Structures are given as structure tokens and as C-alpha cells.
Amino acid sequence: QLQLVESGGGLVQPGGSLRLSCAASGSTLDDYPIGWFRQAPGKEREGVSCISTSGGSTKYADAVKGRFTISRDNAKNTVYLQMNSLKPEDTAVYYCAPFCKNGVPYDYWGQGTQVTVSS
After folding, report:
1. How many whole angstroms separate alpha carbon 98 and alpha carbon 70?
2. What contacts 24+ positions apart, CB below 8 Å, involve 99-102?
3. What local confidence, expressed as pLDDT, does residue 30 receive?
4. CB distance 22 to 88 below 8 Å
5. What are the DSSP calls for the chain, one per residue?
6. 45's torsion region: left (phi>0), alpha (psi -120 to 50) or beta?
7. Phi, then psi, of 73 in degrees rounded to 5
8. pLDDT digits 0-9 by tens, 1-33
9. How much is the pLDDT for 104?
10. How far is CA 90 from its chain centroid?
11. Using H for helix, E for strand and C for coil, what is the string for 81-100?
């Protein structure tokens, strides 16, 4: 059973950067596309970015395009989300999952990692 654990969040000032990690265990990550999602207080979970199994194809939500970069290291069983030029509206709990489409029923969400952008 694939298990994903998110890490790397924290408190950062506007304009700052963070790199999130999504580490897999229980199965090889390269069998799955991986999506990053986020949920801000009082809001629905939304898709942020997605990467294909090989890493050759990536997608981004319009709100993060040009600022965030998703990548994967299948040898390390880890997917990363490099977040630059962070804005207060990026504040949310960030989750990763073995799919890219938002709204897919999924019972194995991890605890996520909190990203707070504030001065």
C-alpha cells in the first residue's frame, strides 16, 4: 500500500521560498503520477500541480504558474514542490496524492504540511 508523507512547510515572509517534499513508502513512486493539492482555512481543497510518472509532463494551477516547480526523483521515491515568490494567499495545508485530478475519492490523505506566508 502506497503511503505518502508531506514535509517542508513552515512560516515564510511574502516573496520567500520553500521546498516541499512528498516521500513515498510501501510502493515504488514511479508507478504513479503525483499531484500536489492545498486547502486553506474555510476553503475547498484545490489542485496545485501535477507531474507524470516519468516527470516529463507537468501541470500547474494558474495561481501558481511561474512561481512553483514540481519535480520528482524516482530513485529517492520523492516528489518535490519548489515554491518561490510566495504570497499570503498561498497559505494553506499542502498535500500530495497519487493522482492529479481534484475531487477524486481518496481515503489515504496524509496530515499534510502547513505553509504560512506572512510578514
Report:
1. 14
2. 99/32, 99/33, 99/35, 100/33, 100/34, 100/35, 100/47, 100/50, 100/59, 101/35, 101/47, 102/35, 102/37, 102/45, 102/46, 102/47
3. 83
4. no
5. --EEEEE--EEE-TT--EEEEEEEESS-GGGS-EEEEEE-TTS--EEEEEE-SSS--EEE-TTTTTTEEEEEEGGGTEEEEEE-S--GGG-EEEEEES--STT---S-----EEEEE--
6. beta
7. -125, 95
8. 889 999 999 999 999 999 999 999 888 888 899
9. 87
10. 12
11. EEECCCCHHHCEEEEEECCC
User: Could you report the per-residue pLDDT of 48-60, keeping only the tens digit for each?
Assistant: 999 999 989 999 9
Residue with cell 499534510: 112
Identify residue 116 by its one-letter amino acid code.
T
